[in-house]
Design brief:
Strand order of the largest sheet of chain A: 1-2
Radius of gyration of chain B: 18 Å
CATH superfamily of chain B: P-loop containing nucleotide triphosphate hydrolases
CATH architecture of chain B: 3-Layer(aba) Sandwich
Helix content of chain B: 25-40%
Oligomer: heterodimer
Number of strands of chain B: 10
Helix content of chain A: over 70%
Shape of chain A: globular
Largest sheet of chain B: 6 strands, mixed
Strand content of chain A: under 5%
Structural class of chain A: mainly alpha
Number of strands of chain A: 2
CATH topology of chain B: Rossmann fold
Strand order of the largest sheet of chain B: 6-7-8-3-9-10
CATH class of chain B: Alpha Beta
Number of domains of chain A: 1
Largest sheet of chain A: 2 strands, antiparallel
Order of helices and strands of chain B: EEEHEEHEHHHHEHEHEE
Distance between the termini of chain B: 32 Å
Number of domains of chain B: 1
Number of helices of chain A: 12
Strand content of chain B: 25-35%
Chain lengths: 289, 241
């Protein structure tokens, strides 16, 4: 039973990540590959605050979110001048730099060994230590995150993002272009990614740089594109599919030992198939052209 | 602030030259458009009309000379700066927001130049609700004017060339701005559509006393309508007709 709740918890964390990434991918039209860097900043900062400063989870998570938002502001500022392949290359480079820093700033991040013995989730006097309790909490947070983002992107604010996504040149012509739209959207997306990072670190009690690398970035993009970018439930469905692939491999793989490798191979095949046969994803979302 | 133009021009170009490689598109061009004026720039294909409009709204930077907006020199400014300072631009090849519904495009136009913040979009406070209701009302009136009520939810990218052009002009008429710069607004439209577009631009211009309208066209019939001034552009040279 605990295993089912563990899967639910992982799904909740990935749902927060995919729904928040969809602000940038589906609504702003930027194929951003550095979302796991925002995830990493939230995880590392909140873990460090708990380990080194003795902060409680809630305070550490808030600081993690703020750090992630601050980290994203220069990215958002740069992204407003980039389109297409330049966004992919620029954001992927930032992810590689972030992972490199995590590996080499040993005094702060623990280097390749990462951070261990991170305190578990605790909200006020409620110690959320069991996996089922953590799973329920994370899923509730994921639902709040989804509702918040859905309400914002379905408002006039969403229309302004869609105009920038579809044609920034025309958005300038119509006076609907604003740098603050990029900065606010990056702040919102990275804030939720940082929150997911704080939950992840406290649930796993151990983090290292390999968790936040390029395979994670590809998995997050896959969630958004498979489900249907900019569709209300698209990224959630994508997260469910991507999270369930390794479990299906375990269940029906006949004792395959390299589940991780098979998982990414299947994800790669699924992504290629969708890109060619169903570019708008399962629920028919935004199509990259 | 650099005050460099001679009078109360809203937009002016002084000795503007623009080259693309060996091709000189604009040669020492001088142009002034005052508040409330309606100005036409007439010329054939390749004469430099579009480049001139692009220079006036910051999409293209001149090699030499200056552009002034309300007396302020615009050197090095991003097109978004021009946009923030009241310039609306439509393009010869109509640029629409392809994957947005027509009603969303028009509602967006009703909002500009304001846009809601994250918090007001989340809580939908009184300011947001009133502002959005007003923009949505404008959009629905524009849909009724165009006879597009049944297409409100259709993606703008599915419209034909003429319909796209009509949509961009509808958006312009809803948007608040001081200067509208329109590149061939009636080109490619049938005579009925072209007449409606011209009427819509006239109405936008006359709605507020200080609004300026700059139109580039090759259509001399259109120019015979009431313009305060007409410039002719040929081979990059601009002359007042």
């Amino acid at each position: 039973m605990n295993y089912v709740f563990y899967i639910l918890l992982v799904f909740g964390i990935y749902a927060i990540l995919s729904v928040s990434l969809d602000i940038l991918v589906g609504h702003l039209g930027l194929l951003v590959l550095c979302h796991s860097a925002f995830f990493a900043v939230g995880a590392y900062v909140s873990a460090s605050m708990m380990l080194n400063a003795g902060f409680p989870f809630t305070m550490a998570a808030i600081i993690g979110v703020v750090a992630s938002v601050l980290f994203s502001i220069p990215v958002g500022f740069a992204a407003r001048k980039l389109r297409g392949d330049a966004v992919v290359l620029g954001s992927f480079s930032l992810l590689l730099i972030t992972v490199d820093l995590l590996e080499n700033l040993r005094g702060i991040t623990g280097g390749l060994d990462g951070l261990r013995d991170i305190p578990s989730i605790r909200i006020g006097s409620w110690s959320v230590e069991s996996t089922p309790a953590q799973a329920v909490l994370v899923v509730v947070v994921a639902i709040i995150c989804w509702g918040t983002i859905r309400r914002i992107t379905s408002s006039a604010y969403g229309n302004f993002l869609h105009a920038l996504r579809d044609d920034p040149h025309a958005a300038v012509g119509l006076r609907s272009y604003s740098t603050s739209l990029y900065l606010r959207s990056f702040s919102l997306a990275s804030g939720f990614a940082g929150l997911a990072g704080a939950f992840y670190a406290s649930h796993m009690t151990y983090i290292n740089p390999s968790v936040f690398g390029s395979d994670q970035a590809i998995a997050l993009i896959a969630m958004v594109l498979l489900g249907g970018a900019s569709r209300p439930l698209g990224p959630v469905l994508g997260a469910a599919i991507v999270v369930s692939i390794p479990e299906l491999v375990r269940a029906f793989g006949g004792g395959i030992s390299e589940v991780g490798a098979i998982n990414y191979a299947i994800m790669g095949i699924v992504l290629v198939l969708f890109a060619t046969l169903k570019p708008r994803g399962i629920l028919g979302g935004y199509e990259f052209r | 602030m650099n005050l460099g133009n001679s009078n109360n021009a809203v937009v002016s170009a002084q000795n503007v030259t623009k080259r693309f490689g060996d091709v000189v598109c604009l040669k020492q061009v001088n142009l002034e458009v005052g508040a409330g004026e309606k100005v036409a720039v007439v010329g054939g294909n390749g004469s430099g009309k579009t480049v001139l409009l692009d220079v006036l709204c910051g999409f293209v930077r001149p090699n030499s000379g200056n552009v002034f907006l309300n007396g302020v020199i615009t050197k090095g400014r991003h097109p978004a700066w021009f946009s923030r300072h009241g310039i609306i631009r439509t393009f010869q090849s109509p640029r629409v927001f392809e994957q947005m519904a027509i009603e969303e495009c028009l509602t967006l136009a009703g909002w500009v130049p304001e846009h809601p913040g994250l918090w007001s979009s989340l809580v939908r406070n009184r300011w947001y609700t009133q502002r959005h209701a007003s923009a949505l009302g404008d959009a629905q009136r524009a849909l009724a004017f165009a006879g597009w009520e049944q297409y409100a939810g259709q993606q703008a990218g599915q419209l034909s060339y003429g319909e796209r052009k009509f949509l961009t002009i509808l958006q312009l008429t809803l948007a608040k701005g001081d200067v509208a710069i329109c590149d061939e607004p009636a080109a490619g439209l049938d005579s009925t559509q072209a007449t409606r577009v011209i009427e819509m631009l006239d109405r936008w211009h006359s709605e507020q006393e200080n609004r300026a309208l700059i139109v580039a066209t090759h259509d001399l019939e259109y120019v015979s309508e009431a313009f305060d001034r007409t410039y002719r552009i040929s081979d990059g040279h601009l002359l007042e007709a």
